[in-house]
Amino acid sequence: MVGKKSGKALRDEGLERTDNNMELSSWPQIPAINQKNYYTDYLKRDDQNLAFRLQNEEARTKMTKKAKDHDRALAMAKTETAEGEGEADGDAHMEDAEETPAEMAGSKVIVIHMGSQNLRIGLASDALPKTLPMVIARKAATNESEDHDEPKPKRFKHDDGSEMEPEKAFGSEWSSHFNRMSADLKVHMRQNKRRMLPNSKEMVVNYNRRTVPEIISEHNDPMRAEWTELSNPPPEYIVGQPALRVPDSSKPRYKLYWPIQNGWCNEKDYTSKRSLFLDISLIVEDAIKNQLRLTSKKDWTQYSCVFVIPDLYDKSYVTQVLDMLMREFAFARVCFIQESLAATFGAGFTSACVVDIGAQKTSICCVEEGMCIENSRVNLKYGGQDVTETFVKMMLHDHFPYADINLRRRHDFLLAEELKKNICTMNEASVSPQVFDFHLRVAGQDTRKYTFKAFDEVHLAPMGVFEPAIFDNSNKITGRRTLIDRSVDIYDGSPNDPTSAAQSEILTAMAPPLPSHGKTNGESHSAAPEVQATPSRPQPPNALSKVQDLEGTPRSSVAGSPGPENTGTPQAGGTNTPAATPAAAQPPRPPAVEDRDDIMPVFGLDNAILTSIAHAARSDEKKMRDFIGGIMVVGGGSLTSGFHLFLEERLQALRPGFSKEIMIGTPPRDLDPQVVVWKGASIFGKLSGTNDSWIGRLEYDRLGPRLMAYKCMWAY
Ligand SMILES: Nc1ncnc2c1ncn2[C@@H]1O[C@H](COP(=O)(O)OP(=O)(O)OP(=O)(O)O)[C@@H](O)[C@H]1O
Description:
alpha+beta; Nucleotidyltransferase, domain 5; six-stranded mixed sheet; Actin, Chain A, domain 4; binds adenosine-5'-triphosphate
């Protein structure tokens, strides 16, 4: 328009051109892009991605090598035939050539499975892992029992210092819960026509009251315990089994730290994330050096590492572990595998509902065709250690003669674990007053031999997994998220840790009321406290009703415990959001249950399994039957005798329509249920050709934890 005006008009407007008609710049001017025809394939092709490129390069190198090997083998075969030196078989040579590197691969892969109580570690080529306590003893002013209830548990004393009756030591609520469980068992046993003396409990209590220990001098005790001797100067820390064997009264004192607790990082006993991960790395490093005999850290660069993570993992934990394995341990490659997937690998199943009962956590997940079904994942915060604690409590309640037992003392913890493993049973036929004995071995003291009687405690303690309110759940979420922040989306800042509809449903049922949303969510939250008091009884809301719909029969009560009561429990709707808020009053949205850190995931095992399966099957009856008929129980907590049969009966009672299908399986080949996960991870580590999830050094150095998005078989 300017060009069309006359020179005069321009002069009038003061816009007359006064320059020398030259362009302002000699730089070429780029016309603006036409947005209509705009196209880019930036980050849309695999070859633009370093992770894929490196993978392809590796595959190409392998192919070339294989082709070369093949040619060489053929050439050799020809030469040998020509020379007439026996019948050369090209294929046989090929097999040899392939087998050797496969074996080598297994022997250069370190497989690590960290648990709340045990670390399992070994080379992928090993048949079984080494198992050691996941603990570190650090020099400290006091030991852990001195920090709590010493010298005698306070719970056995009134405020004025006078002795308290054992029946009252754990509070009236706990006591009445125990008595109710005891009475329920009695009824159930009578229904099953089991003979029982009416005064069994009194007999046990009277016997235990009377017994006194027999003293055996240390040199007369052939089984005396070996205690860890401190070197001079005493070490700063001791890890693994020797840590558990440091006498409580050692000089200087040592305090035990368990960096993994309840399947999470232990944020309760540590003061910083740095010290927490330092302890994890010290324990793992010591295990690699002393158990795997890889003493020189320099050689670790030739090793790869398979690391087992929980099904419902915390992203920040995985990122931190990856950093530790890559930077500190300098492994050549690292890959992660989820626990339940590893369990199916270990057992050789393609599909199963995996129930892993560990020391402090129980996880459930349905696996189908080699993939975890994300919405079926459940993680509950109890396990074998809760059974141990509860067993000791029940025994103390019934006048256990060694009333001074304190599980924070190392020798008492080891003793209690031993007693539980040997005595506890889920087999109802074994419930009768019986005499047991044990030797109390304390460093520097004479051995004491105790005799005691036990009755239903041996059965009711492990039954706690179905009635977890009997466990002490008070401190399990203490400190959560105080040291390690929740992972958030880098774009919108929303939490992005993995979630599962089954877990959300359970959390919704357990959720205590939110102070500010108590009214609007009144229906859901008013039911919650009742649920928390008797967690095994309530039926989880929607998923279970789906199972019932499939089955077409009403829900029945579980043997020994009443039927569902809380039909008014919140309806999670199988989604990740809590119960819907009425449209009228619209307060600010409460946080989703999985984003809340105040909910204790403690829920009866039988109902939790059914919730998981219902979310995996998603109303598909065939799938439902497949999963319910393929429940595989692993983990140390499942080793209680009679556990499988008992669980089967509980599930049958809850779902009579499926009673023929319900089957609880054990891992095949007599594999120890405690090592199945490790075994599966080791098999995964040997799949050199098909495993795309290895994270290599070069790509990690360039891309860091962002790589996880490309390297995980699951959505990261
Ligand atoms: N024979 C047995 N009978 C009963 N319980 C047993 C037996 N053997 C081991 N346990 C229990 O198994 C638990 C340890 O199991 P496991 O090693 O699978 O746990 P973890 O992997 O260390 O813990 P988590 O899975 O909770 O992180 C302990 O509580 C132990 O008492």
